[in-house]
Amino acid sequence: MRSPGRSEPYQKFYHVIKSKTFAVLLTVSILSISIWQIAELTEKRTLDQLASTGELRLNLYATTLRNTMEKHRHLPYVLARNDKIIDLLQNNIPAIRVNPHLEDFARASGALIYVLDQGGTTVATSNWRTPQSLLGHNYSFRPYFTDARSGQTGGYYAVGLQTRQPGFFLSYPVKDKGSFLGVIVVKINLEAMQETWKKSGEAVIVSDAFGVIFLTSNQEWKYTSLRELPDHTTQRLQAVKYLNLPLPTLQLERHSVRNYNILQLDTTRYLENALQLPEYGWRIHYLSSLEAVKNNKALAIIVATILSSFLLLTFLYIRERRQKLISRQEAKRAQAVGEINERLRLEIAKHQLTENDLRQTQRELVQADKLAALGRMSAAIAHELNQPVTAIRTFVASCRILLERNEVDKVNENLDFIAGLTDRMGKITGQLKTFARKRKGKVVTIELGALIYNVVRQLEPQCSKAGVALSTEVDRNCRVSIRGDSLQLEQVLSNLLHNSLDAVQQASSKTIKVLLQTTNEKAILTVSDSGAGISDEVMDSLFDPFFTTKEIGKGLGLGLSIAYGIVEDMDGSIRAENLQAGGAQFIVELPQAGQE
Ligand code: ADP
Questions:
Q1: N or C: lower Cβ tally within 10 Å for the chain?
Q2: Is residue 526 within 6 Å of ligand 1 at its C-beta?
Q3: Of the candidates 437, 540, 414, 424, the residue with the CA atom closest to the CA atom of residue 488
């Protein structure tokens, strides 16, 4: 459908957006965008959930670690004031009296406890009975010793030289009246806690200030570094803390998704929640696998795709049904139209038959009419001619008698009568000839004023004899001219005047008027009379040949028919109408000369 007044590009655009392909593309695009949006939303929600759960778990792990550490924090402080240990360091009692004492403390706390003298050599230890006994070993190189010697509380994570086991070393100086005697060391074992982490199946990491992972639920990450370490740092760490462990850099990639830290370790991606533990200089990380995000996103895409396919199919199904319904309705409508058409066809056929019947009847009527007209004509002609023939026969017989009597004068008189009768007969046959022959007059310019004057003058004696007032206001010299045959036009006017004369015979006031009017192009000739006028029936057949209301012998019914033909040949028209005051008038309109 074309909308009027729209530009060509608009029309093209209108057609494109109305097309089926466009509708399909639009629907697919909208569905794809919706599915993508749902997937994005699911990813965001799952990430948010993972992050908040991670935060909770991280705090839990951090609290557990802190509790374990805090449990032992005061132990070195308390032991540094133990008389036995002070006595031992003052060489007042042998180590054998202190070792079981330390062993008791160790059993109760689960930690390894040992005493270093001023030079950093172990003089008593809780593991004195084990093959890894620390007795006699010097740890002056360990930072916890140097820290304690300088009066500070020592504390750091390291792998034990003898035990080969990692642990957190807490140290405190043993003093007597302000003089440094030695150092008490408590090594907290965090391995048990680490085992619990492993069993939980969660990914937890604790890294030191250098980024070296020393506690983790995943054994493979242990003693690896989260960032690349310079060689001298590695060497130093190996010397004092990690016993020549290689400390390789952990292969990981970091990036950010929706403001969350994402770590990629090998093929697994994790969301990282991390917390700084400033009191130890450590950082604890809780890693949540992004597998759930991936799965949830995939699930969301699948569910959304199934749902949208279902919606699309439902929509298509409904549309299909609607179209079927419309088609069915259209088929019904078409059937109804077909039935109406069939009925119409039958009706037309019936009408056709009726029309044929009517035509046949009409033909028969025309035929009958023609025959009737022919009958009327024959009767009229027979009567018209019979009368003079009978009269002639009588006159001839009379002439014979008069000749026998030798009355020549009377014979001459009779012959004059006979000549008059033959003239009348000639007139009748002449009228018939005019009607039968195709009129072909001589076309000249006719001055109507003069023509009317002549015809009126010829008829005047007849009128005055019948007591009819024939009047005309037409000036014989008026300059109204037409083109045509003047004799024929005279015949028309004469015919009209004769008819009027006949019409006024029975009227009380007997007047006939001839008028001539003009318009720009036409000359209008009017003949009116004060007769009885023309009845409706007569009006219909007025110009038909052989139509007459006059008695047989008074008219042939050819006058108006001939006049009609003549006026038509001159490109004019003739019509009759009744006057309001009574009587009839005939109006002849002819094109003025030079106007046609
Ligand atoms: P005819 O004069 O031989 O009858 P026309 O063709 O001249 O034939 O006229 C046909 C008929 O028209 C007449 O018989 C008459 O009935 C009617 N008619 C003609 N002129 C007049 C008139 N002025 N007033 C009334 N009737 C008329």
A1: N
A2: no
A3: 437
552: pLDDT confidence band, cut at 50, 70 and 90? low
Q: Could you write out the three-class secondary structure of 303-350?
A: HHHHHHHHHHHHHHHHHHHHHHHHHHHHHHHHHHHHHHHHHHHHHHHH
- Does the beta carbon of 578 lie inside 6 Å of ligand 1? no
Q: Is the CB of 555 under 6 A from ligand 1?
A: yes
pTM over 0.70: no
pLDDT in tens, 247-286: 999 988 888 888 889 988 888 889 999 999 998 889 999 9
Pocket test for ligand 1, best of 381, 543, 548, 587 (most atoms within 8 A of CB): 548
* 419-465 pLDDT per residue, tens: 888 887 887 777 677 666 555 668 899 999 999 999 999 999 999 99
Give the nearest ligand 1 atom to 495 CA.
7
CATH architecture of 74-189: 2-Layer Sandwich (3.30)
For the chain, the domains span 74-189, 442-591
Q: Categorize the per-residue pLDDT at 3 as very low, low, confident or very high, splitting at 50, 70 and 90.
A: very low
Superfamily of domain 442-591: Histidine kinase-like ATPase, C-terminal domain (3.30.565.10)
Verify whether ligand 1 is closer than 6 Å to residue 181 (CB atom): no
> Which value, to the nearest 10 degrees, does the dihedral of the CA atoms of residues 294, 299, 302, 306 take?
-160
* Same-fold call for 74-189 versus 442-591: no
Distance 311 CA to ligand 1 centre (A): 92
Residues 574-581 have a mean pLDDT of 95
Query: What is the CA(555)–ligand 1 centre distance, in A?
Result: 8
Q: Is 548 in the pocket of ligand 1 (CB under 6 A)?
A: yes
Cα angle 365, 557, 578; round to 5: 95
- Does ligand 1 lie within 6 Å of residue 398's CB atom? no
Ligand 1, closest atom to CA 547?
A: 10
